[in-house]
Design brief:
Radius of gyration of chain A: 18 Å
Strand content of chain A: 15-25%
Number of helices of chain A: 6
Largest interface: A-B, 46 and 46 residues
Oligomer: homodimer
Strand order of the largest sheet of chain A: 1-8-3-6
Distance between the termini of chain A: 16 Å
Structural class of chain A: alpha+beta
Largest sheet of chain A: 4 strands, antiparallel
Chain lengths: 227, 227
DNA sequence: CGTCGGCTTGAATTATCTCAATTTAAGTGG
DNA sequence: CCACTTAAATTGAGATAATTCAAGCCGACG
């Protein structure tokens, strides 16, 4: 049905970016928020918890996941420094948030956010735009999971990570999450992620100084596949 | 990694439902909207078009899809009677909307919507809730695409359709879309959809009076797999 | 009645997974 | 700083779910 030479389009991993469009109004909330630190693997909030806070990552990384009853896990996004998560109009969180790394976040109470949104039209607009940006990312993620090969998925993921850091070709990009996290984000097994990583390295498409970083060496052949 | 006996959790196909939570304020817009009719397969709007209208399905069904450059397609949702689509704060549509069937929609201008949202807090809230509901559905779709087997995907899809119609076990549910559409929604091939359909029939899990409808006969074994 | 598009089934292929073993990296405590 | 322990990552070999390619079926419709 499709060749594997054509590799995916640029996409961000997920979680609303604050790099491209800085949410000045919402960012102001951090002054009233509290800093929290989480050790690797710790749960920040669980699916079903009352959504009483909104978070922004200061350093580290957070994975946003949904679990099936039998333990299968799908990571629906990662939140990296500067990005928000847990922002929802729903009464409870629809996913679990866990620290990938040693992570520091700012937590702001939801009532404060809603108060601000009610008072400041600009803040309200930002709120909206963040949700909208999230929806666009989720849609790209759907395309990736439904219609891309393992190789394309990994390439798309790496390109998305590089883009988020504003990295140019040749720049070193950090890979804060482990292989299992990548697998659960891409809908693959950890072994397949390893194998495709090895392939991309051998093909000279990427280089990897160590397990937790990479460099994009050759974007040719990774041509944008999106419409 | 997982058994196939445990089949997925309930999920709606996608597109914001107006059945459970009727958006009274937004629905009022229909009085000022125009009715449009589309023949099967016709494009209502394309990805990238300026998002100048918001639509609501009156009858028929609409598929919301994203295309890759090589023609691969991922359907990110279906809009059925009563449901909205094309509702976005972004300047352009992020997906293409095509009529599945002979379909009638109401089209309302975006400026009207935004005017209403600016004036009526209730309408604004509805707007928000519709986006939020859409995000929840997309998240379930991500789990389905990333972590469920073909059999589970199809079962989840059928249960979602039945739920949307408010059908009880034993009620006949319409299948407005073709097999290829189902395949592109589930991230499968048309052949796999057919085979799994056949399996579910033979297993007595469902019955199918004809190709375009089905009946859920046995929900046991389709135990909710979600966390 | 014949054609045509969509659906279904079959047989063979393959991308990805599973299970198992090995290597590498990261601690930890002496 | 080094031995020891442990977890994570990688690689291999075999199994399998899903795909591809191909053929047949069936209902819709002129």
């Amino acid at each position: 049905m499709h060749t594997h030479s054509a590799i995916a389009a640029h996409e961000s991993g997920s979680a609303v970016s604050a790099t491209a469009m800085r949410p000045r109004e919402l960012a102001a909330l951090e002054k009233y928020g509290s800093r929290l630190r989480f050790a690797p693997g710790k749960t920040i909030f669980a699916e079903g918890d009352r959504a009483s806070s909104v978070y922004r990552v200061l350093c580290g990384a957070v994975r946003l996941c949904k679990y099936l009853a039998d333990g299968r896990r799908q990571i629906i996004g990662f939140a990296q420094p500067g990005e928000f998560f847990g922002l929802t109009p729903a009464p409870s969180y629809s996913f679990t948030a866990e620290a990938v790394n040693d992570t520091v976040v700012v937590s702001s109470s939801r009532s404060q956010i809603e108060g601000l949104a009610g008072v400041s039209p600009a803040a309200h607009r930002e709120f909206f735009d963040l949700m909208s940006a999230q929806m666009l990312k989720d849609q790209l993620h759907l395309v990736m999971l439904g219609r891309q090969s393992a190789r394309e998925k990994l390439a798309t993921f790496l390109i998305g990570l590089a883009d988020r850091c504003g990295a140019e070709d040749g720049d070193i990009v950090e890979l804060p999450m482990g292989r299992q996290d990548i697998a659960d984000y891409l809908g693959l097994t950890i072994e397949t992620v390893c194998r495709e990583m090895t392939y991309l390295k051998r093909a000279g498409t990427i280089a990897a100084p160590d397990q937790h970083s990479f460099v994009i060496r050759d974007v040719r052949g990774l041509g944008a596949a999106l419409h």
